[in-house]
Amino acid sequence: MVTVDLIIEIADKIVLIKRVNPPYGWALPGGFVDYGESLETAAVREAAEEINLEVTLREQFHTYSDPDRDPRQHTVTTVYIAEAKGTPKPGDDAGEARLFSQDTIPADMAFDHEKIIEDYFRYCSGESKKGILGLRLEKP
Amino acid sequence: MVTVDLIIEIADKIVLIKRVNPPYGWALPGGFVDYGESLETAAVREAAEEINLEVTLREQFHTYSDPDRDPRQHTVTTVYIAEAKGTPKPGDDAGEARLFSQDTIPADMAFDHEKIIEDYFRYCSGESKKGILGLRLEKP
Predict the structure, then answer these.
(1) Which pLDDT score, from 0 to 100, does residue B92 have?
(2) In Å, how far is A113's CA from the nearest CA of chain B?
């Protein structure tokens, strides 16, 4: 199954949603890609559905595919960095949608999103993607 | 459907295979990812099957998902840059496996691989991924 997730920057914070379906916890906004839909179209659609904001995609960050990353089934997710303005309002799949700075990221994160967010903040701090993600290639 | 493709560098050339199944033409080595298999595992496996060489993955390049990129069905492919040594020998799915330099890339390329290879050579020449691939995000 192919999914997308978004790291949505609003000012100097990012948006997380609180999941109302298992696996519970906080998560990046995102969801399943429809057949015939590009990843970019899916990312913009999912942001609109989950936090009711129109986002501008800035960059494709990385595609994560660890078979254990989603406890429900094997999903491959492409993560985009996007930006938006305004206040996120939770859609149907989200109990809450809130802004978090790096030092307030909650501990109870679903999926591998804690890892993805950690990769993102390392990237923001100037580390190269190759440096952050390259070693993971050595041990598939 | 999730696939991987590889840009395999051997010295200053890259490996292309000649497809024996439709769509015909030259293509990057690659193929379908098995359920429960990471993209990285699939990439290394496909290289072994298609050109009989052990590759070292260097970098995840980009994930391409245009619904029209594969005439058979909608596939999402993650492209890796890898390196190898030795002489590629075609596997079951390949009629030929040959090395090409930038100025000898054949015209009859399958899928969107001509575009992918063009992106790759722009990246090699020092352009940033954001510069090469960023605009594509504007028009999903």
Answers:
(1) 79
(2) 17
A40 closest CB neighbour out of B44, B58, B137: B137
Query: CA-CA distances (angstroms) from residue B104 to A12, A61, B5, B13?
Result: 47, 31, 20, 10
Tell me, what DSSP letter sits at residue B33? P
* Interface contact B89, partner A, CB < 8 A: no
For residue range A11-24, list pLDDT tens digits in order.
999 999 999 999 99
Three-state SS for A64? strand
A118 is catalytic: no
Q: Kindly list the distances between the CA atom of residue B54 and the CA atoms of A47, B46, B83, B86, in Å, as whole numbers in the listed order.
A: 40, 10, 9, 9
- What is the ipTM, given to two decimal places? 0.93
Q: Is the dihedral of CA A40, B132, B122, A66 positive or negative?
A: negative
- Cα separation, B16 vs B129, whole angstroms: 22
CA-based nearest residue in chain B for residue A44: B140
Handedness of CA A7, A130, A123, A110 (dihedral sign): positive
Q: Residue B110 is encoded by which pair of tokens?
A: 């399958």
| Site from A56, A60, A64, A138 to mutate, B interface, most B CB atoms within 10 angstroms | A60
Interchain CB distance below 8 Å, A76 and B133: no
CB under 8 Å to A125, separation ≥6 — which residues? none
Chain B interface includes A40 (CB < 8 A): yes
